[in-house]
Amino acid sequence: MPISDIVIAMLEDDPIDQIKIEIMLAERISSKYKYHLGATYTQLEDLVKYLNDHEVDLVLSDIMIENKPIGIELLKILRDTLVPVVLMTTSQDQKLFLEAQKNLSVQYLIKPFHAITLQSAIENTLEAHKKSKQYNFIDKKYLYLSSKPGHQEQVWFTEIVYIEADDSHCYIHTFSKRYVLKKSLTRLLGEDLNGHFIRIHHKFAVNKVHIQQSEANTLKLAGLVVLPVGKSFRKELNSLLKRHI
């Protein structure tokens, strides 16, 4: 079975715990996953900025940061992003646990813990997340996108006119704004957009509801947008247009 590389972002204000957890993640325990610590932060604002610009598979966070339940605030921010979370704490306060579960179903680790316990919690979270994705995206009709650092907006699929690929990034074009998302177009179409868009070129995918007119090598969209159609994508586009004539 191939081993998947998992990128983790961590929010932890105790420098000793930071080192311990980094060592635990580096241990080769899981037969399915290899863990990489992409970044560690002590402030929620810095972590959120990082998440806006980088793609991660999981967030590992202490609940109490500087004696405040910052981990709960993190859950509220991530609630609609579908990023899985594992929470850590030295507190056994049941109220904190119940508050955490209100916002997102998470694994909850009481410090101190062993590397096996940590990696088992992460693996269980990833497996549960993988199984639930087919249900999570059935009714999803929007994305959370960033038009400027540190700020995310809920953008409905119907607002998006087309998507432009740029290596590992995508530019999401609406009628009034352009957003940047650090995700490849192939992955975005496969994981997030649930059949609402069709790829017409290696660089472009368009919202089906905004297609207005098809020419030999171009496609006209709402808002006077005209995009090229690649030869290898013409057959699928024609099939879509015939079904909706």
Automatic annotation (TrEMBL):
Ranges for domain HTH LytTR-type: 159-243
Keyword annotations from UniProtKB, A to Z: Phosphoprotein
PROSITE patterns: HTH_LYTTR (PS50930), RESPONSE_REGULATORY (PS50110)
One Pfam family per UniProt: Response_reg
Key word Coiled coil present: no
Any GO BP annotation: phosphorelay signal transduction system
Classification via InterPro entries: CheY-like_superfamily, LytTR_DNA-bd_dom, Sig_transdc_resp-reg_receiver
GO-annotated molecular function: DNA binding
Residue ranges annotated for the Response regulatory domain, each copy included: 7-126
Record Gene3D superfamilies: 3.40.50.2300, LytTr DNA-binding domain
Phosphoprotein among keywords: yes
Residues modified as 4-aspartylphosphate: D62
Domain of life from the UniProt record: Bacteria
Protein name: Uncharacterized protein
Organism whose genome encodes this protein: Runella rosea
